[in-house]
């Protein structure tokens, strides 16, 4: 059996993968396949029943499922081959993919591959949270799948762990299904999303407790309580029937790892250049797997941008062999958790690169970009909540000609 | 209430690996058997949380019953494993020495291995160790290689024993913990929350509650359980590439020590700790110990500094005040005890079952004839290195993406003759939600797929 072949094979049918697929077709790329391991394409928004999607893409506010349906319909209308229940288990050099579906295993050939497998929330185990291991402990995404997809309420009085945007989304999900969170705890000393947003838990009378450490999850077979040490050092036992671990996103990089592509330990996702190209020149990346985590709208825009690059490369005969171009490294220096992309190449066209930056905590001060000799190339003042995405524009900077590593660091305000 | 009917030849208290192996052995020998288990499923005690090594017995006390049971258990596992499609991961083990004093102890360990009949054990020089395991920390000195220590699937094996017993007529009853017992001079009357069972003999395989069950049965106990907790950290599958061989430390008098080991499911495991504790039903994980295990793993294999954690868990060893197994009986009452099976029970279970049956058969006979051609059946393979269901067309789609568990596998487990009683049981039978996302993607779906089919549901019944 000869391998099915495509111009571009996209792995992952979330906002990033879908928008890339649509854009590729719009730019005249003939054969675009999108492989999605779930029962339907749409990605995480499929089970986010609340509205906060679609402004950038459709100019209106949609719920997650409605948004996902629109994207999928647009992809189908554009002539994308959408293949749900297809899991890509391996990508090899030269554009080979191994795909598992209910029909068994097949090999696919593609001129370019785009991996957009998204991100997931850290689990209780990853966070090394102590105690017993009862039923009723889950991530926000699982809770949303319970209530929005399966029509089931897994608990009534859960504790929410984390204070990112998604943690607030967990409160909304709970409250619209008769679930009353007993509190929101955060082990960092400060909440992780913008303070102004915490009017929501205040209004809904969900106490927010930064600086609280979980000493033990209790209960068997189901959660009955959580033992905490509060910021002031006192210990307390909160009765609850569930625990929601929200946020602390990690890229879904299983496929990337299995395929031996280079990872950045700082993001946990692939190392890429400003076009989304990874360590294999024929494989590109987009969406939350490269930067845990951004909004769906951001991932959608990024998918389009990377698709533009891929389409241009496929159209340009001279370049249709993927180019190895490693470029200058960008290193996340003091105070920063990560900088994406990790490499800047002079190759390729498009808009001036923007660095996508995340600080280690709240960021208040100057972001400073310097080169190998320590010369400061640009600085930008910044004041952001801990998990807030920070953009550092490189517009107008001439980075060609030199090859030394670039370093971005945060100089806190005195 | 269950109508238990006529007295059975033997009642087994506890469905850990020892109880399951016991049920199988007695059924094969023609006895009628009922197993009473307190929990909603088999393998709810120590047997759900071990290191999954099939030991050769190289470091067991020479001449002990434990050694004899381990070696008999090892041999029988190898003999029956193809009948049940039970896997092994043929890794071998290395007792690695990391200091002068540890290196100095290797020859005595080799001597003990040879004395215990593990003839293929041998010493490896530093160069040989490094050639075999290049990712080990630079300070490794030398090692004792024990080629036939292997890794198994710790849940499918006892499940196979139990399923064969069930196929031979054994009754398995869950949520049926022994509450009280009376011997009327002829028969045992065993009271449980689901009814009272009568039996001509009773076998105590209650693990961590072995001593209290013994007291319940015969009024006193020859031994005292001293729970010893073992915590583990499971690293992501990507970490497994750093190590092939089971990495054992030079043992101390108290414990086998912290092991670094692949799992048959493709992960890398570090553990267990050895912590004495009072509570018998509290296998909790604690932060300093988890941190210690991770630090230890990184010390042994520095590349693990980048590894992600997939899961953490703990098991309670049913240790007693003495090191040896507590195998004893009161033949006049038809009481038999397989207690204190501390840290080698996965390996030894089939051997322990033979041993206890030997004691039992000294002065009693089974109601039926020994089975000459027992039913055999392949269990679904869950081992990562062997073909899995998702590779076979017609599976209906993957439910758990991290562990690649298909809808067909979930359904097969739920409708099997010995279906899971709780979510843990389903996880152990299929691997669902055992992977890196721990149910982020599939938990809600699994709840729907299992609704009304687990005695302890994943989420309480929907009330809207
Ligand atoms: C609980 C929660 C609430 C959120 N709420 C909001 C919100 O209100 N507003 C907002 O803007 N954003 C929200 N987000 C973020 C938003 O969902 C993401 O930004 C967006 O979905 C990211 O898109 P993506 O395409 O990168 O990845 P995803 O949407 O995660 O899609 C990745 C897809 O890849 C598939 N996949 C993974 N591996 C493979 C493989 N090997 N083979 C085939 N397919 C594979 C997955 O099944 C998935 O469908 C929320 C996220 C979560 C978790
Ligand atoms: C950390 C750790 C690592 C280990 N590593 C290995 C290894 O690598 N290799 C190896 O061979 N062995 C290993 N072991 C040892 C092995 O797991 C145990 O020896 C074995 O599981 C003991 O089995 P059991 O059936 O005696 O006890 P259990 O599995 O505890 O079973 C006892 C059962 O009795 C039930 N019960 C209790 N009270 C009652 C009652 N009143 N009525 C009814 N039922 C009752 C319990 O619910 C339980 O299911 C390890 C153990 C631990 C804890």
What can be said about this structure in brief?
Chain A has 414 residues and is an alpha/beta fold. Chain A has helices at 15-26, 55-58, 64-77, 140-149, 165-175, 199-203, 254-258, 296-315; strands at 4-11, 32-35, 51-53, 62-63, 81-83, 87-92, 96-101, 104-115, 119-121, 137-139, 158-161, 183-186, 208-210, 213-218, 225-229, 235-239, 242-245, 249-251, 283-285, 328-332, 336-340, 343-344, 354-359, 363-370, 376-384, 390-393, 406-412. Chain B has helices spanning 17-28, 65-80, 100-115, 126-132, 156-167, 210-218, 287-300, 345-361, 407-414, 423-430, 443-450; strands spanning 10-13, 33-36, 53-54, 88-89, 93-97, 122-124, 142-146, 150-152, 171-173, 180-183, 188-192, 195-199, 202-204, 228-235, 246-249, 259-262, 268-271, 275-276, 309-317, 326-330, 335-339, 398-400, 405-406.
Describe the protein's topology.
The complex is a heterodimer of chains A (414) and B (464).
Chain A: E1 4-11, H1 15-26, E2 32-35, E3 51-53, H2 55-58, E4 62-63, H3 64-77, E5 81-83, E6 87-92, E7 96-101, E8 104-115, E9 119-121, E10 137-139, H4 140-149, E11 158-161, H5 165-175, E12 183-186, H6 199-203, E13 208-210, E14 213-218, E15 225-229, E16 235-239, E17 242-245, E18 249-251, H7 254-258, E19 283-285, H8 296-315, E20 328-332, E21 336-340, E22 343-344, E23 354-359, E24 363-370, E25 376-384, E26 390-393, E27 406-412
Parallel strand pairs in A: 1-2, 1-8, 2-5, 8-19, 10-17, 11-12, 11-17, 12-13, 20-27
Antiparallel strand pairs in A: 3-4, 6-7, 7-8, 9-18, 14-15, 15-16, 20-22, 21-23, 23-26, 24-25, 24-27
Helix pairs in contact in A: 1-3, 1-8, 4-5
Chain B: E1 10-13, H1 17-28, E2 33-36, E3 53-54, H2 65-80, E4 88-89, E5 93-97, H3 100-115, E6 122-124, H4 126-132, E7 142-146, E8 150-152, H5 156-167, E9 171-173, E10 180-183, E11 188-192, E12 195-199, E13 202-204, H6 210-218, E14 228-235, E15 246-249, E16 259-262, E17 268-271, E18 275-276, H7 287-300, E19 309-317, E20 326-330, E21 335-339, H8 345-361, E22 398-400, E23 405-406, H9 407-414, H10 423-430, H11 443-450
The complex binds flavin-adenine dinucleotide (2 copies).
């Amino acid at each position: 059996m000869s391998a099915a072949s495509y111009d571009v094979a996209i792995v992952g049918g979330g906002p990033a993968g879908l928008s890339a697929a649509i854009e590729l077709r719009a730019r005249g790329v003939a054969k675009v396949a999108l492989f999605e391991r779930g029962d339907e394409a749409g990605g995480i928004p499929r089970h986010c029943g609340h509205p906060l999607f679609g402004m950038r893409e459709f100019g209106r506010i949609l719920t997650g499922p409605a948004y996902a349906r629109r994207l999928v319909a647009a992809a189908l209308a554009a002539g994308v081959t959408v293949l749900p229940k297809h899991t890509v288990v391996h990508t090899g050099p030269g554009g080979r993919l191994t795909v598992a579906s209910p029909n068994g295993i097949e090999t696919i050939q593609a001129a370019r591959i785009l991996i957009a497998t998204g991100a997931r929330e850290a689990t209780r185990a990853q966070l090394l949270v102590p105690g017993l291991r009862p039923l009723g402990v889950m991530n926000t995404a699982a809770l949303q799948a319970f209530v929005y997809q399966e029509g089931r309420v897994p608990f009534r009085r859960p504790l929410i762990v984390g204070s990112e945007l998604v943690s607030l989304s967990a409160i909304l999900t709970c409250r619209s299904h008769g679930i009353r969170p007993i509190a929101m705890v955060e082990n960092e000393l400060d909440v992780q999303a913008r303070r102004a947003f915490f009017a929501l838990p205040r209004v809904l009378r969900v106490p927010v407790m930064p600086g609280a450490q979980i000493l033990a999850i209790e209960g068997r077979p189901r959660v009955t309580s959580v033992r905490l040490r509060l910021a002031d050092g006192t210990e307390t036992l909160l009765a609850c029937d569930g625990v929601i671990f929200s946020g602390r996103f990690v890229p879904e990089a299983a496929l990337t790892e299995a395929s031996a592509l280079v990872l950045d330990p700082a993001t946990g996702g692939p190392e890429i250049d400003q076009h989304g190209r990874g360590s294999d020149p024929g494989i590109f990346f987009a969406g939350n797997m490269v930067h845990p985590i951004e909004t769906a709208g951001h991932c959608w825009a990024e998918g389009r941008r990377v698709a533009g690059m891929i389409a241009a490369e496929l159209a340009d005969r001279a370049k249709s062999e993927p180019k190895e171009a490693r470029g200058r490294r960008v290193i996340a220096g003091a105070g920063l958790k990560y900088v994406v992309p990790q490499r800047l190449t002079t190759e390729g066209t498009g808009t001036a690169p923007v660095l996508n930056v995340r600080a280690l905590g709240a960021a208040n001060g100057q972001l400073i970009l310097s080169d190998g000799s320590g010369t400061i190339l640009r600085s930008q003042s910044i004041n952001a909540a801990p998990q807030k995405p920070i953009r550092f524009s490189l517009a107008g900077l001439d980075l060609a000609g030199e090859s030394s590593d670039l370093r971005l660091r945060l100089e806190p305000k005195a | 209430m269950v109508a238990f009917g006529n007295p059975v030849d033997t009642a087994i208290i506890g469905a850990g690996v020892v109880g399951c192996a016991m049920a199988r052995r007695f059924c094969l020998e023609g006895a009628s058997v009922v197993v009473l288990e307190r929990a909603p499923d088999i393998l709810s005690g120590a047997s759900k949380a071990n290191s999954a090594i099939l030991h050769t017995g190289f470091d067991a006390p020479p001449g002990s019953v434990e050694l004899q049971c381990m070696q008999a258990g090892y041999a029988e596992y190898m003999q029956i494993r193809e009948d049940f499609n039970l896997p092994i991961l043929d890794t071998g083990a290395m007792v690695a020495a990391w200091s002068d004093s540890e290196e100095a102890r290797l020859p005595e360990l080799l001597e003990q291995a040879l004395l215990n009949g593990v003839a293929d054990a041998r010493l490896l020089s530093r160069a040989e160790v490094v050639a075999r395991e290049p990712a080990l920390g630079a300070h490794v000195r030398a090692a004792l290689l024990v080629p036939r220590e292997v890794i198994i699937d710790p849940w499918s094996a006892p499940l196979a024993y139990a399923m064969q017993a069930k196929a031979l007529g054994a009754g398995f009853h869950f949520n049926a913990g022994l509450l009280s017992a009376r011997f009327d001079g002829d028969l045992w009357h065993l009271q449980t929350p689901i009814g009272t069972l009568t039996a001509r003999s009773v076998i105590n395989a209650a693990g961590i509650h072995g001593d209290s069950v013994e007291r319940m049965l015969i009024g006193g106990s020859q031994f005292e359980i001293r729970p010893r907790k073992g915590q583990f950290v499971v690293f992501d599958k990507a970490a497994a590439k750093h190590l092939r061989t089971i990495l054992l430390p030079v043992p101390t008098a108290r414990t086998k020590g912290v092991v670094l080991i692949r799992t048959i499911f493709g992960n890398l495991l570090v553990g267990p700790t050895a912590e004495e504790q009072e509570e018998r039903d509290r296998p909790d994980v604690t932060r300093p110990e988890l941190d210690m295990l991770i630090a230890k793993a990184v010390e042994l294999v520095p590349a693990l500094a980048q590894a992600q954690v997939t899961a953490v868990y703990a098991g309670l060893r049913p240790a007693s005040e003495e090191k040896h197994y507590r195998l004893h009986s009161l033949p006049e009452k038809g009481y038999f005890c397989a207690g204190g099976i501390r840290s080698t029970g996965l390996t030894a279970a089939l051997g322990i079952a033979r041993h206890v049956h030997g004691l039992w058969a000294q002065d009693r006979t089974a109601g039926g004839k020994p089975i000459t051609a027992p039913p055999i059946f392949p269990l679904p393979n869950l081992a990562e290195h062997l073909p899995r269901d998702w590779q076979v067309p017609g599976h209906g789609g993957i439910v758990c993406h991290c562990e690649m568990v298909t809808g067909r596998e979930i359904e097969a487990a739920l409708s099997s003759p010995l279906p899971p009683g709780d979510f843990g049981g389903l996880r152990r039978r299929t691997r669902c939600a055992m992977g890196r996302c721990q149910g982020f993607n599939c938990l809600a779906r699994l709840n729907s797929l299992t609704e009304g089919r687990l005695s302890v549901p994943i989420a309480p019944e929907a009330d809207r």
